[in-house]
Structure formats: structure tokens, C-alpha cells
Amino acid sequence: MENLTQKLSKPIVEKVAIVGAGPGGLAAAIVLRSQGIDVQVYEKAQEFRPAGTGLGLAPNGLNFLDAIAPGIVETLKSSGCEVHHTVLKNIQGETIQTNATKYLEQYGQPLLTVWWYHLQQVLASRLPSDIIHLNHRCISFDQDENGVEIHFDGEKPVYADLLIGADGVNSVIRETLFGEGKPNYIGSMCWRAVIKYHHELFNDYELVFVKGNKQFMYILNVGGGYTSWISRKLSPDYSLSHSADEVKSRILHELADWDESFRAVVEATPAEQIWEGPICDRPPLTHWSQGRVTLLGDAAHPMAPAMAQGVNTTFEDAYELGECFSQSANLQEALTNYKQRRLERTKIIQARSALGEMRYYDDTSTSPGQTEQRQMPLNEDFSKWLYNYKPSVTS
Ligand SMILES: Cc1cc2nc3c(=O)[nH]c(=O)nc-3n(C[C@H](O)[C@H](O)[C@H](O)COP(=O)(O)OP(=O)(O)OC[C@H]3O[C@@H](n4cnc5c(N)ncnc54)[C@H](O)[C@@H]3O)c2cc1C
After folding, report:
1. Does residue 190 have its Cβ closer than 6 Å to ligand 1?
2. Is residue 113 within a helix (H) or strand (E), and if so which, with residue range?
3. Does 278 sit in the ligand 1 pocket, CB within 6 Å?
4. Confidence band (pLDDT; 50, 70, 90) for 235?
5. Of 10, 11, 23, 251, which sits most exposed with the smallest number of CB within 10 A?
6. pLDDT-derived band of residue 238, with 50, 70 and 90 as boundaries?
7. Quick one: three-class SS letters along 55-104?
8. Stretch among 44-58, 143-157, 165-179, 377-391 having the lowest mean pLDDT
């Protein structure tokens, strides 16, 4: 009895360091702080900058966000955009198909599009600002049975009982643990930006998908007058441009045959705001933790964006890590349970995302039914499994 009371009242660790103040690191900080744990977050950026892409928050991610920080989904609904329709267009700008999104009716939550930067701000506003340490680029760590010492570029080291690597697809923490090297390039180049933009052809509550030949573009409203565009092209090899101006000319060249309405979004974007890079993932891990160090979000399971699940599964991780902490007798048990809860599900989603990514480029046909299939290679059972995932009621 005493043991159980102890288990429920005293946190199993006192001090946690999280590397990375992206959505995953901040969500984990909210969860663990609510259990009375001293959490500190270390972020390499010098300031919170308008960065990142437009993200689709799906019912499973929203279910977990609601449990992590009650009320936050309502805040995001007012700053982001609820998608009512997905619209498939050809490169001439003609609408091929419009589908009503049925997420709310089918899964109890809408599809919400938000800007990564706004999401970061909304999550950070739920934390005391003095626990977020900007300008802290983690370069390595050492651990023994008593704790972890974390090293930063040009800053003093810090000590913690547990280190969580929430430092994204190029995670230094993962690399130090497992030494796998660079992520896999999965054959698809990406150009993207978020800008203040309005075009009469794109309606506010629509998510537009334009299918070209081995290339496509997403245009989405992320709220507050901002539009996110993401352009992708199948490219077996990838090369990066040498300057911001070259990036912009390159993408405009790729869209040379496309309707003026699509080119106009790119033309309206200042060159230095366009991000160019490869789409990458990594194979699933067999272990997520070692000693007093664990991983979360893209650091643990980076995936191709085809199913728009990266950040959604990251919120699942953060919540479930918290559950494992509150329900386990010690750190080792908590980390074992965390892996058991997360590994299988994220492995399946990673595999389906990689498959979906290549189906985008299967052939050049734009027959509506076929293209929809490629866009969303999800059957009903899989969709239910994916989107109906909710925090367990034992919490
Ligand atoms: C084009 C595109 C579209 C996408 N669309 C969707 C979508 O619709 N829906 C969806 O769910 N997901 C989407 N994703 C994926 C989503 O962006 C990621 O899954 C999500 O951001 C992961 O969150 P995270 O906190 O784990 O990592 P990140 O968002 O990558 O954050 C990591 C943080 O760690 C910091 N950091 C990195 N290294 C260090 C270091 N050494 N020291 C200190 N700090 C460090 C970074 O600066 C950053 O702030 C998309 C991705 C791309 C590329």
C-alpha cells in the first residue's frame, strides 16, 4: 500500500532536460511539469523565429493535445484553420475533384491546419519562459547510473536525471546513442514557405492539392492571413541550390508550365523565406532509450510527410511518456513501457508513410479516383486505427 501511494505521489525523477523546443519537446515539457517534475528545455535557435511548414493536425493528434493541455485545441482552432474540403486540381488550375472532409463526423475532431511556428508559440505560452533556454545547441552528453551531463556549444553543461532528445530528424541525441549517420533520402525534393497571402482562387477552408508530372504542390491556409505552400518533385538524386535567389528561380522553373495562380504564390514569396531540402526518414528503431536517455517525435521516428502524421504521433509520444512516468515504479520501468506503447504503432505509420510518399509519383495519370487513392492510401480500417487513437481512460 505504501509503495502504491509512493508510486502515485512522488515523481520517479526530479530533473528532466529536454533538447529541442519543437512541438514534441514543448508538449513533453507541459506533460512532465504537470507531474511536479523540474523540466528544462534547451533549444539551439537564438530566438523563436517564424519558421517551419504548414501542418495538418489530425483527430489522433488533437485528442492527445487536448489531454496534454486542456483548452489548447480551442486556441489552435482560432489561430489555425479548420479544413472543410480537400480540392484536387490539375496544373492548368482546373478542379478535378472536391471532397468534404469527414473527420469531425467520423472521428470526433476536425482536420486543422496550423503553422509550425504558431504551434510552437501556443505550446510555449503554456510554459514559464525561464525554463526554455534558447541559443543552446546540444553537441553531446555523457551518462552514468546516477545521471546525465549534457554539453552545449559555448554554454555550460547541465545535469539531469533524464535526457529527452526531441531534436528532430537530425537528432544529435539519437546519433550519440545509436550512431546511424545521416537520414535516408527517399527520392523526393521539397520547397516550401509560409507567407501572408491571399488569392481569390483558393478558398479559406480548402486544402488544395495540385498533381503534376512527378511533382505536386499543396496550398493550405494556416490562419491569420498566412498561406503555406509545399512543392515537391521526384528526384532520384538531390542537389541543393547555392543561393536563395537560385532556389526561387529553380522552383519557378519547375512550375514553368503551371497555371499562373500557382506560380503567383511562389512569386509573392521573398526568396530567403523559401526552404529547400530533401525529404528523409529513418528505419524504425528497435530501442528508443539507453540508460537515462530517451527519444521523442521526429528524433525517434522521422517519417515521410505523405500521411501528415509526424507531429500527430509526436503528441501521442509526449502524452504516453507522461503516462508511463505516472504509472511506473522507477525510470527503467517507465522507459520500457514507453517503448512498448510507442514502437509498434509508429513503426506501422512510418512504413505506410514511406509507401504513400512513392504512390504520389506512381504515374502521371490524373484520373480522380486513382489520384485520390495515391494521395491517401488509407482503407477504412486503417483510418479508424489511425485517427480514433485516444488517450487511455486509466489516466
Ligand atoms: C514538408 C513537410 C510537411 C509536413 N506536414 C506535416 C503534417 O501535415 N502533419 C504532421 O503531423 N507532420 C507534418 N510534418 C512533420 C512535422 O513537421 C514533424 O513531425 C514535427 O515537427 C516533429 O516535431 P519534433 O518536435 O519532434 O521535431 P522538430 O519540429 O524538428 O523540432 C526539433 C527542435 O529541436 C531543435 N534542435 C535540433 N537540434 C538541436 C540541438 N542539437 N540542440 C538543441 N536544439 C536542437 C530544432 O531547432 C527544433 O526547434 C511535415 C514535415 C515536412 C518536412
Report:
1. yes
2. strand 112-115
3. no
4. very high
5. 10
6. confident
7. EEECHHHHHHHHHHCCCHHHHHHHHCEECCEEEEEECCCCEEEEEECCHH
8. 377-391
Distance 365 CA to ligand 1 centre (A): 32
Instruction: Beginning with the edge strand found earlier in the chain, give each strand of the sheet holding 155-160 in spatial order.
Output: 138-144, 147-152, 155-160
Measured distance CA(130)–CA(137) in Å, rounded: 17
61-65, 197-201, 340-344: the lowest-pLDDT one: 197-201
CATH number of the domain that residue 102 is part of: 3.50.50.60
Range of the domain at 9: 2-183+281-387
Q: What is the DSSP letter of 290?
A: E
In the chain, the largest separation of any two C-alpha atoms, in whole Å, equals: 72
Residues 6+ apart with CB under 8 A from 39: 15, 16, 17, 18, 28, 29, 32, 33, 131
Residues 6 or more apart whose CB falls under 8 angstroms from that of 393 comprise none
**Residue 218 included in any domain:** no
**Contact in structure between 297 and 116 (CB atoms under 8 Å):** no
CA distance linking residue 79 with residue 77, whole number of Å = 6
Cα–Cα distance between 192 and 117 in angstroms, integer?
Answer: 14
* Residue 54, in any domain of the structure: yes
Give the pLDDT confidence of 272-291 residue by residue, as tens digits: 999 999 999 999 999 999 99
Q: What is the pLDDT of residue 201?
A: 78
Instruction: Give residue 366's pLDDT.
Output: 44
Distance from the CA of 353 to the center of ligand 1, in angstroms?
16
On whether the CB atoms of residues 59 and 109 are closer than 8 A, the answer is: yes
Which pTM does this prediction carry? 0.94
**Structural domain contains residue 394:** no
Residues 259 and 92 sit within 8 Å (Cβ to Cβ): yes
C-alpha 281 – ligand 1 centre gap (Å) = 12
In a domain, 196, yes or no: no
